[in-house]
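In line with agreed milestones, the collection of sequences with tokenised folds has grown. One record among many is set out beneath this paragraph:
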Amino acid sequence: MMNKEHVQKNITIWTMFRKVFPQIVSVSPRLVTFNYILFAFNGVSIAASTFGMQVLFDKVADLSNDKGTIKSAIFALLFLFSIKVFEQITNGLANFIAETYDPKVRGQLTSTVNLKMNKLDPICFENNEILDHINKSYSGIDFAINLINTIMDVMLFYFPYFLFMGTYLFLLKPVLVVSLLVVFLPVMFTQFIRVKVFSKLEDKSAPLRRKGEYYENCLSGRKYVKETRILGACPYFMELLKQTLVQINHLKWKADMKVNLIELSTKLATLIGYMGILWMLVDALMNNEISVGAFAAVFASIESMFNMMEQVICGRLGYYANNFGKVQNYLRFLELEEREGCEKVQEESFHGEISLENVSFSYPCSDINAVENVNLTIHRGETIAVVGENGAGKSTLIRLITGLYLPQNGRVTHNNKSTKEITPRVLFTGITGVFQNFQRYQLELSDNITISDMESESKTQQDIDVAVVQSGLRLDTDIFPNGYETMLSREFDGVDLSGGEWQKVAIARGVYRDHELIILDEPTAAIDPVEETKIYERFAKIARNKTAVIITHRLGSVKFADKIVVMKEGRIVGVGSHEKLLLSCLLYKNMWESQAQSYATANTIL
């Protein structure tokens, strides 16, 4: 579960740097170190060019007053030229390395988020707050990279430049350095205001942004577009999207107005200070406190120095301030609690006997138990069917049995090992399933099947063939023109399948995976009873010598189960064979009689 303390606490700049910087360096330590050295040299060379200009202007002034030689002026020119060439080389090379390095870092940080999600308790994905944090974390990746780039640029590029220039100006006239600091203190204050304002903006915008993405998907996503357009629902979702965008833009406008009004006043102070420094330079020259060369060099460099200061404070730090909250969200997500457990299991057959003892479970932000005080034992090699009306808690029970969800009360054990004590990676080994809302992966047929067990080194083509036969899928050239290499997506120049064919692909995917426990969660809900019967006949053969759990609302196809579990409002109200339940469970009897007519002519499994 999510730790509220982790989510709410503020994350400092130092914490950000300490956590993100090692991730960036780890991609290529030597290359990133070399790049940082280039940036440091580049900052020093830009500052040194001011000194080079002073030397050149002084030599030219001496030459005009018959105090110098052409040779000394030429040497001064070559000195300045060499500094400028070095500056351009280091700048170009550093920027080139950064542009090619950043995409690699982005991939590394994205992979970190993906791996983190894989370690979260699956129940987290039923929590809207967690979903918001996932959304925020992905949008914070680029800003986390830019944050580190900004910090390192300040340390290695801007700091050497301003240190050199500060020392240079101090030696010319100490008051010049003091004036520069006073001028830019208000600008720094503005950036601190930005941090607070835009951090709050990001927290308020993330849920709205997720809503907007959903509405866009309803309008144009392949999953929704047919129904949305046929039913004429586009205007409805357009209006919802419009309202969401208006809310996001209104929040952004309020934040921008607040910050820009403050920034306007500080820039006026900066302008006045800039004029004051120019006046002090002129005064120092008139009083012979600085040379003509020093005046010309500072005068030529002061505008670029102000631009550099504004770039680092208003530009780089301002950009960082605007997106401070997004970087915080990235790190907050990485700090969410992970599901823990033991990685080692001694038993060869881990999913032997499965037992539920006084198990209760409720979803996040819900006060009602989806499963309440359930006791059930599933023996190794046993096939059970879970039936009940919609909302009875059947699918939730399956998620508890497999360990996908952990109970709040009671415990679920596999061979006396609690699911709370085993990591999901170990727990899910040996479990497979076919679900009602199975995925239609836009991949080749072979990949659609083998994706369930890609890490297995012992699998062969024969295993794929067996899975296909067991699923009832026929590799007709009319349906699969390229056999196993047929792309199952019209969007990628392939083919699309009927619902029934996709269902068989999903079954093949499920049985291809090595398993001791197989789950069928209403996989036949969208097909007719006759075809359903055929699927369950095949499944009965597949599940032989395996532990199997079936969820269905059609009772005619589950009489082959060793026992049937009847659920109502999260509780088990009956367990037994078909014949026993007809006599002992009124709910089961009523469900059976209501469906009897549709099964009168069907070939039910006896």
Q: What stands out?
A: The chain is about 60% helix and 10% strand. The two ends are 45 Å apart (CA to CA).
